[in-house]
Amino acid sequence: MKLNRKPMNVMQRVLLVASLLTLPSLVFAHGGATGATKERMDAMAATKDSLSQLRSATSSTPVNTELAMSALNDLQAFSAELPRLFEEEHLPKISEALPGIWENAEQFDAELRFFDAQLNLAKSQLDDTPEQVLRTVAAGCASCHDKFREKTQ
């Protein structure tokens, strides 16, 4: 049986390579995590499934808006959970969270609101510009990660 698959575009290749490169660190990074840090790490790891689902849904022809909306709803539920996940300042060496989360709580809260706004924007883009949806969500993730997540090599 012959499968008719479209070649991956540049963005899909970048996401695939980035996912493959971070997978080993994720597997080992959670080892030893406990309490609030483990809960945060597990929640962040679960978003990877939603992002993968979103990528798949928005890159298919035709776009699978039902699957994309399901992924966006899962991400929005995660977004609503984020303030609770960061209530407790828990920063063992294994954590990638930076102390600025608690030292500059107002800015962190603003980043969480921005992420949620990006998710709402992504939902509105599904019909007219589905190719933009993943970039919109990624901008919401990156905005917070750039300021409040330790950069890893």
What does this structure look like?
- InterPro entries: Cyt_c/b562 (IPR010980), Cyt_c_II (IPR002321).
- It holds the Pfam family Cytochrom_C_2.
- It is a single chain.
- This protein starts with 9 loop residues before the first helix and ends in a 5-residue tail after the last helix.
- It has a domain at 36-88 and 95-148: Four Helix Bundle (Hemerythrin (Met), subunit A), CATH 1.20.120.10.
- It is 72% helix and 0% strand.
- It contains 6 helices and no strands.
- By secondary structure, the chain is an all-alpha fold.
- The chain has helices at 10-29, 35-59, 65-85, 100-103, 105-125, 130-148.
- The protein is elongated, with a radius of gyration of 16 Å.
- Helix 2 runs antiparallel to helix 3 and helix 3 packs antiparallel against helix 5 (105-125).
What's the topology here?
Layout: H1 10-29, H2 35-59, H3 65-85, H4 100-103, H5 105-125, H6 130-148
Task: Summarize the structure in short.
Residues 1-29 form the signal peptide. The protein is mainly alpha-helical and 153 residues long. It is built from six helices and no strands.
What top-tier CATH class of the domain at 36-88 and 95-148 fits best?
Mainly Alpha
Count of DSSP strands: 0
Oligomeric state of the chains? single chain
Number of helices: 6
Low-confidence stretches: 1-5, 23-29
CATH superfamily of the domain at 36-88 and 95-148: Cytochrome c/b562
Topology order in helix (H) and strand (E) letters: HHHHHH
Keywords:
153 residues, mainly alpha, 6 helices, elongated
